[in-house]
Specification:
The chain is mostly beta strands. The chain folds into two domains: 85 residues, PRC-barrel domain (SH3 type barrels, Roll), CATH 2.30.30.240; 57 residues, SH3 type barrels. The strands form three sheets. Strands 1, 2, 10, 11, 12, 13, 14 and 15 form an eight-stranded mixed beta sheet that branches. A seven-stranded mixed beta sheet has the order 7-8-3-4-5-6-9. The protein has a two-stranded antiparallel ribbon with strand order 16-17. The N terminus and C terminus are likely disordered.
């Protein structure tokens, strides 16, 4: 799903898209996984399941001409490389740090949920993370800016605790309205009078 107003889209929409070498007219394979840099908050690239049966390759986002919505395109087959030959992508994969589905905790230790969505811009930079607790459709969701993130580690993403709005020191609670209790209505021996009134009402 894409947001045409801000040119962002959910990274999961790249999965299974064809990878095309546009100057050769070749379909090289399909996107298998997206690899994100947990420090730079950006897509490093995608792994590609090769159509010709060759071992899985890697496409650096800088070699991509277009990231969806119909395909991931690159100029030529030469844009593909082995994951092991891309130092940063290989380092991230070897670290065991996964952004999607990572548990999210505040710096006070409060659990928020897990990363259910990663919204990225056309250049691969992360625009926002969406943490969800419970069912994504019916549970609670919270949108997180990369600026909210302190660190993404092997076990969890740690984010800043939201600050409560300050209350002015001279603020006073609103006065509680006082309502007078109505005097009881009493009927005595067929005569109607108000309690505390020495005479009948006539």
């Amino acid at each position: 799903m894409r947001d045409s107003r801000t040119h962002t889209f959910e990274a999961a929409t790249l999965h299974s898209l064809p990878v095309i070498a546009v100057t050769e007219g070749r379909i090289l394979g399909r996107v298998k996984e997206t690899i994100f840099d947990p420090e730079d908050h950006a897509l490093i690239g995608v792994t590609v399941s090769r159509r010709d049966g060759k071992p899985e390759d890697f496409l650096d986002v800088r070699q991509a001409r277009c990231l969806g919505p119909f395909a991931v395109t690159t100029s030529a087959t030469a844009g593909l490389q082995k994951l092991e030959s891309h130092a940063r992508a290989h380092e991230v994969v070897a670290s065991g740090v996964h952004v999607r589905d990572a548990p999210v905790l505040t710096d006070a230790g409060e659990p928020i949920g897990k990363i259910a969505q990663i919204w990225i811009r056309d250049d691969g930079g992360v625009a926002a993370y969406v943490a969800a607790s419970g069912s994504f459709l019916f549970g609670r969701k919270r949108r997180l800016s990369p600026h909210d993130v302190i660190v993404i580690g092997e076990d969890a993403m740690i984010v800043q605790t939201p600050r409560a709005e300050p209350v002015p020191s001279d603020a006073e609670p609103a006065p509680v309205a006082q309502h007078a209790s109505p005097r009881p209505h009493i009927i005595v021996a067929g005569r109607d009078r108000r309690d505390g009134d020495g005479r009948g009402s006539g």
